[in-house]
Design goal:
Radius of gyration: 21 Å
Largest sheet: 3 strands, antiparallel
Helix content: 40-55%
Length: 201
C-alpha cells in the first residue's frame, strides 16, 4: 500500500503550497505603446512608455508593491501616481483563500474539510482570474487615460477604442503555473473527498 505520506490529500496540499509559492513569480506584463494605434490616429503621447510599464507578481499585486519599470518623464506637470501601489483585493483574497485551503483539512477532519478546501481552491482560482483578466487591464487603461489627460498642453485626443488598443496585458508563465497547481489540487481534493486513494504499490 502507498504510505500516508503519499496520500491524495498530501499531494493536494503540496500543489496548494506550490500555488502559493508561485505568487512570487511574475504573473503579467503591462505594456503601453502608441505603435499599437491605427495609422490614421494622429496621436503620440509625449514621454509615454513605449514598452513594459510593469511586471507584477502575485504577491506584489496582493500587497500593493508593484513598481513601475519606467515612469513617463513628461506627461503634463507631473506623471500620474503609480496605479498599482494599492493592494488588489482580488489577488489578496485569492492568496488568503489558498492559505485557507491549506488549513481547512486540519481544522475540519474527514470529507468536510476536504470539500471545504476544494471550495476555497476553486474560489481562489476565480478571484485570481478576475484580478489578471479584468481588474489589471482596467487599471492599466485608467493609467493611460491619466497620461493622456496630463498631456493636455498638446491638445491631443484619443478615441476610447484606440486607448484599448494601446494597452496590452500579457500573462506570464508564473500565473499559468499558479492556476495549474490550483487545478491539480482541486482534482486531488475532490478525489480524496470521495474516498479515492492511490493504487497500492
Amino acid at each position: 500500500m502507498a504510505g500516508p505520506g503519499f496520500s491524495l490529500l498530501n499531494l493536494a496540499r503540496g500543489l496548494t503550497l506550490a500555488a502559493l509559492l508561485c505568487f512570487f513569480l511574475p504573473w503579467a506584463t503591462v505594456s503601453c505603446s502608441s505603435a499599437r494605434l491605427n495609422d490614421t490616429v494622429e496621436f503620440r503621447m509625449s514621454g509615454a512608455p513605449s514598452e513594459a510599464i510593469a511586471r507584477p507578481s502575485g504577491f506584489a499585486l496582493a500587497t500593493g508593491g508593484v513598481r513601475l519599470i519606467q515612469v513617463p518623464p513628461s506627461a503634463g506637470a507631473a506623471p500620474p501616481a503609480n496605479p498599482f501601489a494599492r493592494p488588489d483585493p482580488l489577488a489578496a483574497s485569492g492568496g488568503l483563500l489558498i492559505l485557507a485551503a491549506l488549513a481547512l483539512p486540519f481544522l475540519l477532519r474527514g470529507p468536510r474539510g476536504r470539500l471545504a478546501a476544494l471550495g476555497a481552491t476553486l474560489l481562489a482560482g476565480g478571484f485570481l482570474c478576475l484580478a489578471i483578466f479584468v481588474r489589471l487591464p482596467r487599471t492599466a487603461q485608467d493609467y493611460a487615460a491619466a497620461l493622456i489627460s496630463g498631456d493636455a498642453a498638446r491638445g491631443t485626443r484619443l478615441d476610447p477604442a484606440e486607448l484599448v488598443r494601446m494597452i496590452e496585458v500579457r500573462t506570464e508563465p508564473g500565473f499559468w503555473l499558479t492556476l495549474a497547481a490550483l487545478a491539480g489540487a482541486a482534482v486531488l481534493l475532490g478525489l480524496s473527498a470521495r474516498g479515492r486513494s492511490l493504487p497500492a504499490a
